[in-house]
Input
Amino acid sequence: MQNFIGVLNWQFVLYVGMGAVLGLLVGALPGLSAITGVALVVSISYTWGTNQALAMIMGVYVLACFSGSITAILMNIPGAPAAVATALDGYPLAKKGEAKKAILTSVIYSTIGSVFGILALVFVARPMSQIALHFSPMDYFLLSVFGLATVGSIASKDYLKGLLCSVIGVLFSCVGIDPIMGIPRFTFGIQQLIVGIPTIPALIGLFGLSEILEQLTLDTTKAKVLRIEKQKVNLQEILGKWRIGLKGSIIGTLIGILPGAGAPVASLLSYGNAKKSTKNPSVPFGEGAIEGIVASESANNAVIGGALIPMLALGIPGDSVTTIILSVFYIHGLIPGPLLFTETPQLFSIIIAAGLIGCVFLLLLGYTTAPLLAKVVQVPKKILFPIILVLCCVGAYANNSSLYEVFVMIIFGVIGYYMKRNNYSPAAMVLGMVLGPLMDNNFRRAASLAIGSENPFANLFLHPITIILLVMTVLSLLSNNKTLQQKAKHLFSRRKG
Amino acid sequence: MKKNQSIIESYLLIAFGLAVIVGSLRLDSFGELVLSPGLFPLLLGTLIVLIASLMLSRNIKLKAQEATSDEESHEAARHRWREVVLFVVVSLVYVLIMKYFHFLIATILYIFTTMWLLNERRWWSLITFPIAVSLIIYLCFDKGLNVYLP
Output
């Protein structure tokens, strides 16, 4: 609690506020998302203190997860994939002249979802991190493998491609001086590669530039924006849907904890669950039922706290945004896990405080800025894209005041564009790049410890945690094997028959 | 067309994996395999070959099953890539000229060119917008955030 109060000052609130405004913008702009916003903040906050960087990033994260719903409701264009389910009922409700009700519902339940997720983070992260105290080097290695295997399955439509991206990401992290033997690996005599491939420019390229390149060729004809009519909204009716909101928050938090899943999966699952379980919705789902907005918005914002749990407790990010936040930790010399809670407990408080202040900004700005945001997202791409392109270049340059890093960003932008066009996963690649050094070190440490022991096999694998992690990894890999899935379905259908 | 591309892609990935394996084996191990800097990349290279081979066999099967494809036309794909290559080249030139000119000049030219490529033809917009945006970004980063710009 002392740490929590200690971080609160007007500067801290200001940084969260700046992040919140940026989050509102990137979340609402179709094509851009929390990932783009956080990637840009990481690039400019490289020289800042950790507190300020994390404050702004949390502001972006909380608001960007929400603001996609504004365009979903007013224009039927979800600002982010997580708002797709919101559009299903939000837009029909707005078309009936009840846009104010739809947006207020979204604001209230996004806030409830965010607060729920953050509270779950407070209570779950620390106990979970205690498990990590008993981890051997092999366990850390397997935990990273499990994270990559799961991300590969969810972040890409094609599992094999997702998995391949993770492996190539890990390989990219091997470029540069080997930390154990001090020998350069895969540098091909290029001086700049000795320090490795810079992660921040790579991720700006993979998420920022590639997104712009992707959007360049898309047709973005102006959509009609519905007006927010002045109407009296029955708050009791909105708040009366708390049960659906609570269920959505629980689903969102749990999905957030799963490495690689994220807000889009959570909101669709929660929407589907609400549709099945709500017997008497205000109007049928798909025709403007506020129950649909409640389910979708509470779940997609609860993902924030959920996704931060494995990242802070174990160093395994829950989604693409937390992958980038993890890179911020490494940049600032911090290692997530049990030591984070004992050695730098204030950092945990910073994240919680920034998240909760972000929720206050969500309540304050969510409704009031909705009409303005709807206009901003109509700014033509010929004006908007050049600005974002320059910001990507400046962001990559600011990382180390090096033009070489801007080249790296552009190269990864093209790679990211190709990957997106062909169902490869940039998120899996970045996660591989971030977890790579941890995997390399722990793998070799585990191998050398095993070689020195009497029974190498037992030393490597015969520990309870190792066996659990091995089983989890194998299950994750097998559950994504289509042939096995078909056989299992066939078996179950025969039993039913 | 798309299926052929996937098969070629798989072959290239297998070649890439094999190159990683060869590169890893060439790294000096000082006689200690477990401490060798090439051990982990060797494992990764093997995994790349394995996964790419699985992709290849799947793509060959899919090609045999599907003779036709509903993917975008060859012409549309070429047009898309042409635009992307154009923007990438302009961005690379921007980085190069930033080295020799001031950030402000390079950025004004860059925004002007990208706006032109995105079919902006209003002269007042092409003049005022690049200057205003470049100045704002310069002041924000160079003066506000203490990021030294070239």
